[in-house]
Write a structure and sequence with these properties.
alpha/beta; 2,3-Dihydroxybiphenyl 1,2-Dioxygenase, domain 1; globular
């Protein structure tokens, strides 16, 4: 491990055509708190998380994945990471600089191997979180992001080599789970045209997740798959469709691992591996209900903010 390795997933940003509707839904239904609004970009925090924000929604002509942001430990780590990436031939979108948006910070952006915009930052001012009330059933924080890639092994190698990610597990040769700290995964890749698969938010526990599922279903939100429990990561899951068509997940009990003893497992794909309980598809749900991947129109295009 290097001093400039990633330490956690900071936020995910998406672009959507119906900005007003998506903005209201994220705050009033999904359960994040709007902490900033700049023209047509809204920033959302998880109430009990100290992170300045964990999700960003921007008005765009087409639905797209705008940016994935990771944190490093210091400004010197930001500088070192920028130098390392440039020396490896990675296209930087900016040199390290002071960041706008809630919490500020110091960072830069680059394109990954598939053309997604990635941000590296440090020194973002934390906010004052609040304790969630019993049964409040809203996200406690950002958990992970899953991406489609036309060449999974190439994408995995890029994030291992350039950002210091470690492989936690494989699902056959179909899906790879990557970590940057003791959480089993904050990033994963599955086959398909380069685009977003889903963004996951972690609930405090399974009880809170189930209460959240009930709340969302009563609100008329489409439950695409779940509740169930995966094997890789051992996390409970429920996947929903946002008004934009983006897939968002409530998850709970994501496995924490010991770096000194962990050995990756290659699981043989099966319904019992993807859902230990077998409950996620009882009512006609499943990954197919969440929509087919479509090439992201935002690839190789730097977002305006």
């Amino acid at each position: 491990m290097s001093a400039d390795d990633i330490v956690y997933l900071r936020y995910v940003g998406v672009g959507v055509p119906d900005f007003r509707n998506e903005r209201g839904w994220v705050a009033n239904v999904w359960g994040l708190s709007e902490v900033g609004l700049d023209a047509e970009t809204a920033y959302f925090a998880a109430a009990s998380s100290p992170n300045a924000y964990v999700f960003r929604v921007r008005a765009a002509e087409q639905r797209c994945l705008d940016v994935i942001a990771f944190a490093v430990a210091s400004e010197s780590a930001v500088e070192a990471k920028a130098q390392r990436l440039a020396a490896s031939g990675v296209k930087l979108l900016s040199e390290p600089h002071r960041l706008a948006g809630p919490g500020g910070g110091y960072g830069f952006r680059f394109f990954d191997v598939d053309g997604r915009t990635v941000e590296i930052s440090s020194g973002v001012t934390e906010r004052s979180p609040r304790a969630l009330n019993p049964g409040e059933s809203i996200p406690a924080g950002l958990s992970h992001v899953v991406l489609h890639s036309p060449n999974i092994r190439q994408s995995v190698a890029f994030y291992e080599r350039n950002l210091g990610f470690r492989v936690s597990d494989w699902l056959g040769d179909f899906m790879c789970f990557l970590r940057c700290n003791s959480v089993h995964h904050c990033l994963a890749f599955i086959p398909g045209p380069a685009c977003l698969n889903h963004v996951a938010f972690e609930m405090r526990d399974l009880n809170e997740m189930m209460r959240g599922v009930s709340r969302l279903v009563k609100e008329g939100v489409v439950l695409g798959w779940g509740p169930g429990r995966h094997t890789a990561g051992n996390n409970c899951f429920s996947y929903f469709l946002a008004p934009s068509g983006n897939v968002l997940e409530y998850t709970a009990e994501v496995q924490r691992i010991d770096e000194t003893t962990w050995k990756p497992t290659v699981y043989k794909p099966s319904p019992e591996i993807t859902d230990q309980w077998g409950t996620g598809s009882l009512y006609g749900g499943g990954p197919q209900k969440l929509g087919a991947p479509v090439l992201d129109p935002g690839l190789w295009k730097a977002p305006p903010v």
